[in-house]
Design goal:
alpha+beta; Double Stranded RNA Binding Domain; 3 domains; 411 residues; 9 strands; single chain; 3-stranded antiparallel beta sheet; 11% strand; DNA polymerase, domain 1; disordered N terminus; hpI Integrase, Chain A
Amino acid sequence: MTSKLGDILGDGIGGVAMGTRVLNKLSHAKVAKLKVPGIYEDGGGLRLILGGTLKKRWVVRVTINGKRKERGLGGFPTDLLEEARRLAAEFRTAAKEGRDLADERRQQKRHAQVTFEIAFTAFFENRKKSLRNAKHIQQGESTLRAYVFPHIGSRPVAEIEAAEVLDVLSPIWFEKEETARRILQRMEAVFRSAILRGHRTLASPCIGVTDELGGKRRVAKHHPSLPWREVPDFVQRLREREASTSTKHGLEFLVLTAARSREVREVPWSEIDFENESWSIPAERMSETCEPHSVPLSARALSILKPAREVRNSDIVFPSTSGVPLSDMTFAELLRDMGCRGKATAHGFRSSFKVWAAENAKIRDEAAKSRWITRFQKKYEQPTCGLSFFEECRPLMVASAAHVCGGVAES
């Protein structure tokens, strides 16, 4: 057949030499006139196969990692001769690099069928196993269905670009800031999952989105707090109030120590050192800091604790009737009942203490600030939580107790 085809096509005539091989043996006109079934070589491994039904198709033979393989390129005239030669050249180049272009294209086609929604489903089915909160599971899916899927849900996850992520988030970035940021986190998780599963080769399109959209200028929100001059009257009214002993004593202890609500409500007896007159809060119970913290206890603070220790029926210093820590609304409800709604919060007594210390206490500023570790730590090269100031803070807490108790700290 070779000699016959050579006679028909003029084998080697008009071809281009490539080493010892000859390329471009065929022409478009010759290919169009072929009527005899057979294999017609164009050179460089490219060949046209004419079947018994006279249906024509292009194939290229390449050697990949020492193995001879034949790869289909398509039909004729849908894929023209010039296109067949171009594709054959791509296959030869890939083969020299040890790559099988046909396998790569099959994978690309398969990945192109993996949309963002499909990638999310695959990711989320696995993630749900580690989520215990049904509300978080529902929110994770509903927010993406509401804000993301209508835009890029049907787009191949491999092809989504950063501009598309920006289009999704821009309308809600400031109007629904918290929602937008959570959506961005969930989208980022889906893209990371797609990359790990091989459905995407490009980097995550979420990179740099936050910088591009920018941050909303935040206005500091302060907890309502009583003026420090009104705190003694408040404490007197608190002692006279008909309320649970744990609740009243817990709130007064909070005022005396300038501690956070949760730190007081959950304090166990193991953190109280009566011998050294101190309260040691471990790192894991400190808000937004990795350091433990020690609070000097005034005489009044100790006088609240000692009777409770004698009748203790719980490992918690200020337990509820069931022996567990007071709820996070306990102090808020007591303040509301005392007419302080909108005027003061439990956390606000930290501010009252700070202002009193700034205006009255003769103590180094750093020592006073050490009572607000998280509020000030970002303003110092060395966070104040790394400095105890414990002994300097003791006279501060004693003086504060005297002020709070109307000048008699032991009362």
